[in-house]
Design brief:
By secondary structure, this protein is of the alpha+beta class. The protein has a single domain, classed as Winged helix-like DNA-binding domain superfamily/Winged helix DNA-binding domain (Arc Repressor Mutant, subunit A, Orthogonal Bundle). Strands 1-3-2 form a three-stranded antiparallel β-sheet. The chain starts with 14 loop residues before the first helix and ends with a helix.
Length: 98
């Protein structure tokens, strides 16, 4: 029997990272507060997951000021799109197998 979970990417095991990547796949960019609201998590929790994705080169960070307020937004990289699609395909294959 072949390994049914070998195509799954461990970086997306977390439901929060899965949520972040899902949001970024369908939006050009998304800001920190909107991600926090959408996922209903704390600042620190979100920041740690974003940092992990950024360190792996899966997302990019853009810091700017809107008026006088700082704004941090995120977008998915080409590599992030590719790896996340592979992960989703592996999940779909797993579901279809059983």
């Amino acid at each position: 029997m072949k390994d049914l979970i070998s195509g799954l990417n461990k970086v997306f095991d977390s439901r929060i990272r899965l949520g972040i990547m899902s949001i970024l796949m369908v939006n050009d960019s998304y800001d920190f507060n909107s991600l926090k609201e959408s996922l209903n998590i704390t600042d620190g929790n979100l920041a740690s997951h974003l940092k992990a994705l950024e360190d792996r080169g899966l997302i990019e960070v853009k810091k700017q000021f809107i008026g006088r307020k700082p704004n941090t937004s995120y977008n998915i990289t080409t590599e992030g799109i590719q790896l996340f699609r592979e992960h989703l395909n592996a999940l779909e294959k797993l579901i279809r197998t059983h």
